[in-house]
Amino acid sequence: MAARRRAEVGSSRRSPLDRSRIVAAAVTLADAEGVAGVTMRAVAAGLGVEAMSLYNHVRNRDDLLDGMVDLVFAEIELPTAGAGWYQAMRKRAESARAVLRRHPWAVGLLDSRSAPGPATLRHHDAVLGVLRGAGFSVAGAARAFSVIDSYLYGFVLQEVSLPFRSSEELGEVAGGILGGLDAGAYPHLVEITTEHALRPGYDYADEFDAGLALILGALEPDERGEG
Amino acid sequence: MAARRRAEVGSSRRSPLDRSRIVAAAVTLADAEGVAGVTMRAVAAGLGVEAMSLYNHVRNRDDLLDGMVDLVFAEIELPTAGAGWYQAMRKRAESARAVLRRHPWAVGLLDSRSAPGPATLRHHDAVLGVLRGAGFSVAGAARAFSVIDSYLYGFVLQEVSLPFRSSEELGEVAGGILGGLDAGAYPHLVEITTEHALRPGYDYADEFDAGLALILGALEPDERGEG
DNA sequence: TTGACTCTGCTTACACCGTAAGCCTACGGT
DNA sequence: ACCGTAGGCTTACGGTGTAAGCAGAGTCAA
């Protein structure tokens, strides 16, 4: 059969396997099992392949993790200058938070990763571009970028590491921690828990917008008169 | 010899080994080798003991990591109400940052840790106490706490994961990343790097105080009129 | 004094990890 | 038809967390 000359038909024999397929499989696995579940053997198994085959496309496990982080960054919406820097930063931050919640392991990977990938660089460049275009000085853009991203990563880091996902779970956990202790040892934690966090309708996630608005409201372009 | 009745003299025979000695040894090891170097065998070796002996005092490796994080929190200065909430929050944040820089592995451990230890709880309680004492409402204190800590953790997370420690290293790294690419692919990153970050005297660490001041300045007690 | 119980450290063993080294086979260029 | 090479596979090694069981010392009852 002449058609067999090329394998592009996808002869079931062997699929091509390249870096991006490996990284994507690793991300899927991490979403399901956590980053600890991302072993070379497990990733390979997910692709119907042996562990050592991955090393033809990936330098080592660390390189794979770098790729995963970059793939996550690629999911974040790039900001656009159209609607003004405030809205652009706001939308970008919310998109980033949504993405990082979808891949909770990614934040914990941010430290220990040293080589930013192309998507990461493109993302940072776009953010700086919006700020500069809106009149922020170089130093001002750097500062705004630093503050916003610190808040963003820090919030998600805390959010993701909370040992509960819903309000009911919160109740159980808080009860477990505070209940087992000397009553009155942590009066303010008790207060904030019972009078605030356990109130129906409370959702810690809502704090994100509030904090973000507070920070964005304190920023402004072209800080000529400022120290 | 009657004195031998009690081993309290410290017969060189065997040292007692308890949880706190184990956790302290693990922290020392992590400071020196990074968190990946904290293996049960290595921690035990540092104490002149075999790996399995640790399990008499520590549930498992995860429990050990929990203990390490709590020990780090214990190093952070508790805020005191004396000089006003602004200065208290400022000093607390700077102390926390100094501690987390001393133990760079700790931030990365914050996620994946689910059981806060006593030092952690005491710390959070003290922060809330200062804010409440200064007139913040329960909701306001919760919000302030969330914003400040998010910024703090996020900043340190980024700071710690930077692949350099000094300005010269920054130059090399930046050159390596940006140099290997299409010139002009990331114009704003190039701009900020060459015109700002590589300027003599620039230190990213200084951004911390600026961002913190910006956030603290936007907070205020008793947000009656606010949404 | 003696014996039993408990506490704590040690030894051994297992499954799983990342990955170095080398083999085998199918494909593409000649 | 051949052969180099790329990209899979197999095997193997040292290191990991930790389950299971052993050994010696401290404490207490009889």
From TrEMBL, chains A, B:
Keyword DNA-binding: yes
SUPFAM superfamilies for the chain: Homeodomain-like, Tetracyclin repressor-like, C-terminal domain
Residues of the DNA-binding region: 39-58
Biological source species: Isoptericola halotolerans
UniProt key word Signal: no
UniProt-recorded name of the protein: TetR family transcriptional regulator
Keywords assigned: DNA-binding, Repressor, Transcription, Transcription regulation
Domain HTH tetR-type, residue spans: 16-76
